[in-house]
Amino acid sequence: MQTSTRNRVLLERSRTAVWHPCTQMKQHETLPIVPIARGKGCWLYDCDGRRYLDAVSSWWVNLFGHAEPRINAALADQLQQLEHVILAGFTHEPVVALSERLSAKTGGRLGHCFYGSDGASATEIALKMSFHYWRNSGSPEKTEFISLAGSYHGETLGALSVTDVALFRDTYAPLLRPSRRVPSPDWRLAAPGMSPREHAIAAAQALESHLEQHHAVTAALIVEPLVQGATGMAMYDAEYLRRARAACDRHGVHLIADEIMTGFGRTGSFFAYEQAGITPDFLCLSKGITGGYLPLSAVLTTDGVYAAFYDDEVTRGFLHSHSYTGNALACRAALATLDIFEQDDVITANRNKAAQMSARCAALATHPRVRNFRTLGMIWAFEVADAQPGFARRLFEAALARGVLLRPIGGTAGSTVYFMPPYVISEEEMDWLVSNTMAALEAAP
């Protein structure tokens, strides 16, 4: 595949000047960085015009495709009015409107929105808010947090303390605050003959046992509802969430729903926790919130939590801030994203898309190298049975050569392959994705 001078110059400049995330930069001595010039719909185009189907929604953020005209128009309009203003002591229409609409999506049960810049920020906010709530409420001993085995909640130090992915955590372990782990309801871990629901119930019973012993010092349980992302798209039965909510209520512990990845329709409902018929105490949102356009995160919480901070004393207020908190442009992009959900009846449309995609995946699901093929909403995932160290890179390169962007995850080999495409993917693009993924599997030992 011939590469133009423009492409070569850009990728070399990037390799030497940009420290890329989650990357061993030395690998780019032999694995070229892909220079992207533009995007349109589900496709990314390099400087030579080669195109790649964005099967991972550019790290799970791009819901409605690249260069979506309605989001573009909203941002162009907002640019003529207000780009940003300090949110401490000031406000603006986009942040108020967004807060009201997000709260309405929870049925008004989570009525207070606090804004950050990214998913890890949202996790940090929720953890600090829960801890500070208990301190303000006369229970300063409640300082511990619980997360699931295999959980991922971000890579800043507080978020990493409740993350259980060795690749991210082990190096920085001496810097992290201790936290507790309870068994994951991931159905791949079920004992032979045990159903996903039965395994979820067993995991919930383990949580109950832990809380019986440690509730007095426990501030909150944090979970990724229905799907644990970075650990390998680990999916589980909603019964776990129902029982976890009940256990947290019984023992006076907060429930934090990390919907940074699962929110905004990705699992088949607007928020994943809805499928369990529960409401968390804190809801963390990011990634798809702006349709993949601008950094933004939000934490929604209840009247009861908010009331614990409402006081004459400054020290009882929530002491946390970000320079770009509630950025007007980002909020306007988020409002345009919510408009598209309503205008296009996206949740219903996604159910039809999911059925179309799953039908096309039938041959992939029975491929001799594929194990644990699974799907939930607009997520599809499977393991490659014979993956050896370096498999993730080999499959990435093989898929890229065939015009598909895949980014395998999970374990040392990166043996979990997943699709999380933009919601606008067409039937023709589904065919392209599945057929070229199968071809890449054949080409990547």
Strand order of the main beta sheet, please? 4-12-11-10-7-5-6
The number of domains is 2
CATH-scheme architecture of the largest domain: 3-Layer(aba) Sandwich
Sheet with most strands: 7 strands, mixed
Task: Please report the number of helical segments.
Answer: 15
Strand coverage percent: 15-25%
Overall SS class? alpha/beta
Give a structural overview.
There is one protein chain. The protein has 445 residues and is of the alpha/beta class. The chain folds into 2 domains: 5-67 and 345-443, Aspartate Aminotransferase, domain 1 (Alpha-Beta Complex), CATH 3.90.1150; 72-343, Type I PLP-dependent aspartate aminotransferase-like (Major domain) (Aspartate Aminotransferase, domain 2). The chain contains 15 helices and 16 strands. It has helices spanning 5-17, 57-60, 69-79, 93-105, 119-136, 157-161, 166-169, 196-214, 239-251, 303-307, 328-343, 346-360, 362-365, 391-401, 427-443, and strands at 36-40, 43-46, 51-54, 112-116, 144-148, 180-182, 218-223, 227-228, 234-235, 254-258, 282-285, 297-301, 370-376, 379-384, 404-405, 416-419. The protein has a 7-stranded mixed β-sheet with strand order 4-12-11-10-7-5-6, sandwiched between helices. Helix 3 packs antiparallel against helix 11 and helix 14 (391-401) packs across helix 15 (427-443). The longest helix is centred in the middle third of the chain and has 19 residues, at 196-214.
Supply the key terms.
Aspartate Aminotransferase, domain 1; alpha/beta; 16% strand; single chain; seven-stranded mixed beta sheet; four-stranded mixed beta sheet; 445 residues; Aspartate Aminotransferase, domain 2
